């Protein structure tokens, strides 16, 4: 009986390590890609002479980035990570469209909340 439990513990330990690495990867994606997206969005606003820093509009821009990151992760990045599972599926086209449209809407109205 000992080899069964030893093998099970080894697999459980490997799975836990993969989950921790994937969580670290997700946090890194949120910070790095989120900061790059924020920089790009603020640069686009600056081209049009709009500033939303330190305003409610800045918060709206920040909140608009999260659905974009979620769609990017669920539709592309989750399949290249440390954690492999047969239950990983892409978002439906409708859900993707709703999230992307809501982000674009938030980015469009953000300058109005200065």
Tell how many strands the DSSP assignment holds: 0
Mean pLDDT: 88
- The topology string of helices and strands comes to HHH
Rg over CA atoms:
19 Å
Shape: elongated
Sheet bearing the most strands, described? Answer: none
What's the end-to-end separation, in Å?
Answer: 67 Å
Q: Give the fraction of residues assigned to helices.
A: over 70%
Count the DSSP helices. Answer: 3
Q: What is the structural class? A: mainly alpha
Tell me the β content.
under 5%
Low-confidence blocks of residues: none
Quick overview of this protein structure:
Helix content is 73%, strand content 0%.
Furnish the topology, listing elements before pairings.
Blueprint: H1 2-47, H2 56-75, H3 93-109
Helix pairs in contact: 1-2, 2-3
Structural overview:
There is one protein chain. By secondary structure, the chain is mainly α. 73% of the residues lie in helices and 0% in strands. It is built from three helices and no strands. Helix 1 (2-47) crosses helix 2 (56-75) and helix 2 runs antiparallel to helix 3 (93-109). It is elongated. 9% of the residues are buried. The mean pLDDT is 88.
